Amino acid sequence: MIRVWDPLVRALHWTLVVSFIVCWLSAQVWEDLHAWAGYVAGALTLARVVWGFGGGGYARFAQFVRAPRVVLAYLGAIVRGSEARFVGHNPAGGAMIVALLIVVAATVASGYALTTDALWGSSGAQHLHSWIAHGLALLVLVHLAGVALASLRHRENLVRAMIVGDKRAPTPDDVA
Length: 176
What we know:
Helices cover 69% and strands 2% of the residues. It is an all-alpha fold. The chain has one domain (2-167): Transmembrane di-heme cytochromes, Chain C (Fumarate Reductase Cytochrome B subunit, Up-down Bundle), CATH 1.20.950. α1 (7-26) runs antiparallel to α2, α2 (31-54) crosses α5 and α5 (91-113) packs antiparallel against α6 (123-153).
């Protein structure tokens, strides 16, 4: 086993999961809790972006953000059942992280905008926030499906890896 996910990456990930769930469950039920959970999500997203540039190893964006053609080639390999195992994030996972960070930021920004004088009570702005949040939920479901698929295909519990930080050491066929 090797250490892949550092404590900060894991803490940010799981705290963001909790924040997302609280936001989703408190929407239109408990407005103050919903807003504070959203602010927490925004702070976590900002911290993850900073850590993506300043962290080490597998936490760095430079380690897992790939060109679109590489992501598309990897998705094609998944369809063919021939995708390589990556010790860190695979190209599809890297693209998903970027997408999730962007959409979480957009959800937080649109939610915050609803508290301003300019957009207070605006049904259009509320609908936009709702659409972005539903898009985020869809991305979360796709992310979970990708984690499940990669876990099955590579016989590796990725949820456990994100809890403890360790993954199976690479073999010669893996991408380190």
